[in-house]
Amino acid sequence: MEISTRSLWTMVHGMGFGALYLLACSGALVELHRHYQPSAGDAASSQDNVFLRVYLAVMAVLAWLAVLTGGYIVYPWYRAVPPAGTKDMAAFPQRLLMSSPNTIGWHSLGMEWKEHVAWLAPICISMAAYVVFAYGRSLKELPKLRNTVLCFVWISLAAAGVAGFFGAMINKNAPIEGGTTIHIPHGEQR
Amino acid sequence: MKQPGSSSQIANGAGAAAVLAAGIGSFLVGFFAVLADKAPAIKNLMIFAKPTGPLSGVTTCAIVVWLLSWAVLHARWQGRSVALNRVAVSALILLVLGILLTFPPVGDLL
What we know:
- The structure holds 2 protein chains of 2 kinds.
- Chain A is mainly alpha-helical.
- Helix content of chain A is about 70%, strand content about 5%.
- Chain A has one domain (about 1-80, about 90-175).
- Chain B is elongated, with a radius of gyration of 17 Å.
């Protein structure tokens, strides 16, 4: 088995940070809703509160890592410009997508939207993490603030979902390849 | 943050500042993206890191203004109670506008 370093980074960006963030969103929404609604009584113990604070902080770190690895490591490979006269566009995903009317939409709509909307997720979740850090169980008594934070977390899930969907489809149509090849031993046919 | 006794004693200012700043930051991502797309001169100015292109400047500017607005609002509202309805509605409108502006067909209409 072998994998290129660029494929590995794309996986770390999308399936590592991005997918983990998407998975974590559902947990954050459930916990925010369950613990801090006014009818929750004393449901949120201090232990639960510490857990949710750490959980949201980890989500914020994941979201920032996803957009930073995407924007500064993977995206430059995606948008690389081929030298004049290049016929094989396999190593230039953006140009490969733009070379066919059947795939150009994945760039002009998909990547153009994904590259910007993804940045809303870390902004929204950083705010949510801060509010939970600052208020903790007092959020139960501030329903408007809690509901607003919940809306932002929902929208961060949607933004990350858009980015994840288009990222997966773009990589399916024009995979990012190249760089050093990593050979994985013991992958031979048994 | 919490004053024991009644919920009305809990100052929501710090939370409101974070919420409104997040709305401003989200809006600015879309705003700067459209600006860079429409004006070639601004597009060139937004190239902070050449391999990443204008995206580097668009997101860096939005993040810097987001953090600055958060710091200013926090300094003004910390320890106070503000009209959260208005702040929340404004922040959510800014957030939705930010999403719409990042959507290429909407940006193309402008």
